[in-house]
Specification:
The complex is a heterodimer of chains A (701) and B (48). By secondary structure, chain A is of the alpha+beta class. Chain A is 51% helix and 19% strand. Chain A has five domains: 79 residues, Alpha-Beta Plaits (2-Layer Sandwich), CATH 3.30.70.100; 128 residues; 63 residues, Calcium-transporting ATPase, cytoplasmic transduction domain A, CATH 2.70.150.10; 232 residues, Rossmann fold; 92 residues, Calcium-transporting ATPase, cytoplasmic domain N, CATH 3.40.1110. In chain A, the strands form five sheets. In chain A, strands 15-27-26-25-16-23-24 form a seven-stranded mixed β-sheet, sandwiched between helices. In chain A, a hairpin with a 2-residue loop joins strand 21 and strand 22. In chain A, helix 4 runs parallel beside helix 7 and helix 7 packs parallel to helix 12. Chain B is elongated, with a radius of gyration of 19 Å. The longest helix of chain B has 26 residues. The termini of chain B are far apart. Classes of the chains: A alpha+beta (701), B mainly alpha (48). Chains A and B meet through helix 1, helix 3 and helix 4 of A and helix 1 and helix 2 of B.
């Protein structure tokens, strides 16, 4: 998470924070101007696209202090572990560099080729061919590597993919053109080879940009499981340590509002913890000395001292992660549509090229001419448009869906989403909002400012729900405010004692507001997401039957199931949900799993495709193929519909690419394809395919 | 032919300049925060 760099002689640490709350230019300047003057901070730079802040700070300044400074500025920030993301970034950068080189070469070689086609002859033509070779050969060696590597690894495992005909075609054409150039021949296809690489790399870049962009968005939303904790050392000092450095038997100080970084037993203090990350359940659980607490839970009220009983890979949360990893292995066997097409296409192309070579040789042509024709067949059939057909359509849809509030993690997710024919929903947090909505009707207007002021000062989920509901209400001034563990908040307002806390006797979720002698009980309810009914009906029309798979009690699920008209399975453990998905898959269904909690994690990983709301736990968001923002459930149906439209366009694109082959291949077989024809055909079909994909801009409406 | 001898290296040189500029921009992080760059123009540098 932190990297050591040296700035002005002193060792500085670099920490990334995710700040999902950034919305405008004002936020950027507020954060940067607020952080930069602080002692110990060397620099703070906002990345608005990724909703992150990169802070360079002295090691003395510890992560929680920076977080506190950001909280004072009004932004909730979470430190990020970002090694994996950085690696993905560098992969897509390497692709971009290869594309830039190929683009440069394609332009210059085309310039030379146009001169040849417009009549350069003799020594001039040979010079131009030679120059083309000098540009094209290093380019093929550099920009072609992604294809050669993938083709080689496929061949080594006895398989074939789209990269095999591409690699053979490019290498053969380059080799032959070099031979032509050296022997003073009339036709060199360097422009074709380089342009082919350029178009195909464009497709690859689109694919990887799409993955990165969605991942950035998801990372910004992630409320990372505690990346570390404040450790009480034996000599009484405290020090902030990263989660990986925590060990058995260490003593952690967990302040109110912090997440636990390890499993442990409470030694001192009493508080309530929020288990919503693990279970999706929003009602807090009370803990006192001797109780067991789990990593990832949020400490709500008082400070706790926790003795670590399990850290890192031994925590309960890590166990579920392992279950998920196993569940996800089935999905990695999914073969993307482009590769499925390649399985049919590659052997056909190879056979065609080889037979045209033999045929021409048999009809008495020289081996040189026969090889030239075989190369022309390969380059004409090379899946230039095919390579763009899938990623172009998918990135346009992903962009449209992103504007509609759905972040799709990669292209294969869209393909699998289009195939889904059965939907399973978790209840709490998925069909319902998963957060308590207060019933404030009884509270009179004059009491509301006091209620708002009290609620805003607490981390308790019920208080937060009240604060959210009263966002527009101005807060009253409260003196002597203090938080009482296990009860709530007490203070004085205009001489009267005021409090907000646990009612003495109430069933279900409730808070009690007291002002002087008067008291009001505020009830809470978890509501259905807006448009839940309409979404389920739309899914039904799309051919996806839905049902509920919930870990909750039957009594709690029944009202929701009745209201939505769905059948429900209740009391399910993570393993039960996995079994339910396996049963449906066994019956030939492709299951769309929609869930949010950590307990849904394995099911999300096991489903044919999965979606999670942005309010979901980290684990839920990481396991899901797509994350939808906002309260409404409607994006689920929108995403399915958009994914199906995308697949229609992808199929059209395949048809266009194949139709073009049907016209061009006979020409190539007859030996009529000159470099000029190849260049026109290739760019023409690519442009048509991209233009067709652009129609998907409105796919998410 | 003399024209060519001048123009060809010139064209290649300019193309390479463009490529080098793109590489530099990518390495220097010019494309890291496209939305943020659009926003920063709105920030007043003068403290008010």
């Amino acid at each position: 998470m932190t990297a050591q760099t040296t700035v002005a002689g002193a060792a500085a640490e670099r920490t990334l924070f995710a700040v999902p709350g950034m919305r405008c230019a004002g936020c950027i300047s507020k954060i940067e101007r607020g952080l930069n003057p602080l002692p110990g901070i060397l620099s703070a730079r906002v990345n608005f696209t990724a909703k992150q802040i990169a802070v360079e700070h002295l090691p003395e300044l510890q992560v929680p202090q920076i977080q506190e400074a950001l909280a004072k500025l009004g932004f909730e920030a979470q430190p990020l572990r970002s090694t994996e993301q950085e690696r993905d970034k560098s992969e897509s950068r390497a692709l971009l560099r290869a594309t830039a080189v190929a683009g440069f070469a394609a332009m210059n070689v085309m310039l030379l080729s146009v001169s040849v086609w417009s009549g350069a002859a003799g020594a001039t033509r040979d010079l131009f061919h030679l120059l083309s070779a000098l540009i094209a050969i290093p380019t093929v060696a550099y920009s072609g590597r992604p294809f050669f590597r993938s083709a080689w690894s496929a061949l080594r495992h006895g398989r074939t993919n789209m990269d095999v005909p591409i690699s053979i075609g490019v290498l053969l054409v380059t080799g032959l053109s070099l031979f032509e150039t050296l022997t003073g021949g009339a036709h060199a296809y360097f422009d074709g080879a380089v342009m082919l690489l350029f178009f195909l790399l464009c497709g690859r870049v689109l694919d990887s940009v799409m993955r990165d962009r969605a991942r950035d968005g998801v990372t910004a939303l992630l409320k990372q499981t505690a990346p570390g904790a404040t450790v009480l050392l034996e000599d009484g000092r405290t020090e902030w340590r990263a989660a990986e450095a925590l060990q058995l038997g260490m003593c952690l100080l967990v302040a109110a509002g912090e997440r636990l970084a390890a499993d442990g037993i409470v030694e001192e203090g009493a508080s309530a913890v929020d288990l919503s990350l693990l279970t999706g359940e929003s009602a807090p659980q009370h803990v006192a000395a001797g109780d067991k607490v789990l990593a990832g839970t949020l400490n709500l009220q008082g400070p706790l001292t926790v003795r670590v009983t399990a850290a890192g890979p031994d925590t309960a949360i890590a166990d579920i992660a392992r279950l998920m990893e196993q569940a996800g292995q089935g999905r990695s066997r999914y073969v993307r549509i482009a590769d499925r097409a390649a399985r049919l296409y590659a052997p056909a192309v190879h056979t065609l090229a080889a037979s045209s070579f033999l045929l021409w040789l048999g009809m008495g042509a020289g081996w040189h001419q026969a090889l030239l024709i075989a190369a022309a067949v390969l380059i004409i059939t090379c899946p230039c448009a095919l390579g763009l057909a899938v990623p172009a359509a998918q990135i346009v849809t992903a962009g449209a869906l992103m504007r509609a509030g759905v972040l799709v993690k990669d292209g294969s997710a869209l393909e699998r989403l289009a195939e889904a024919d059965r939907a399973l929903f978790d209840k709490t947090g998925t069909l319902t909002l998963g957060r308590p909505v207060p019933n404030l009707e009884m509270v009179p207007d004059e009491a509301r400012p006091i209620l708002a002021a009290l609620a805003r000062r607490s981390h308790h989920p019920l208080s937060r729900a009240i604060a959210l509901a009263l966002e527009a209400t101005p807060a009253a001034a409260i003196d002597e405010l203090r938080e009482i563990p296990g009860f709530g908040l007490k203070g004085r307002c205009a001489g009267q004692a005021v409090s907000l806390g646990r009612p003495a006797a109430a069933e279900g979720m409730a808070s009690e507001l007291c002002i002087g002698d008067e008291a009001w009980t505020i009830g809470f309810q978890d509501r259905l997401r807006p448009e839940a009914v309409a979404t389920l009906q739309r899914l039904e029309r799309l051919g996806l039957a839905s049902s509920i798979a919930s870990g909750d009690r039957a009594a709690a699920v029944a009202p929701v199931a009745r209201e939505l008209g769905l059948t429900a399975q209740t009391g399910m453990h993570p393993q039960d949900k996995l079994d339910a998905i396996a049963r449906l898959a066994g019956a030939g269904h492709k299951v769309l799993m929609v869930g949010d909690g950590l307990n849904d994690g394995p099911a999300l990983a096991a489903g044919h495709v999965s979606m999670a709301p942005a309010s979901a736990s980290d684990v839920g968001q990481n396991a899901a193929d797509a994350v939808f923002l906002g309260d409404s459930l409607a994006p689920v149906a929108t995403a399915v519909a958009a994914a199906r439209r995308t697949m229609r366009v992808v199929r059209q694109n395949f048809a266009i690419a194949i139709g073009y082959n049907a016209v061009a291949v006979p020409l190539a077989l007859l030996g009529k394809v000159t470099p000029l024809v190849a260049a026109i055909a290739m760019s023409g079909s690519s442009i048509i395919v991209v233009a067709n994909a652009l129609r998907l801009r409105s796919a998410a409406r | 032919m003399t024209g060519l001898a001048l123009l060809m290296p010139l064209a290649l040189f300019l193309g390479l300049c463009g490529l080098a500029a793109f590489f530099w921009a990518m390495k220097a992080g010019q494309f890291d925060d496209m939305d943020g760059a659009a926003m920063r123009i709105l920030i007043d540098d003068e403290p008010d």
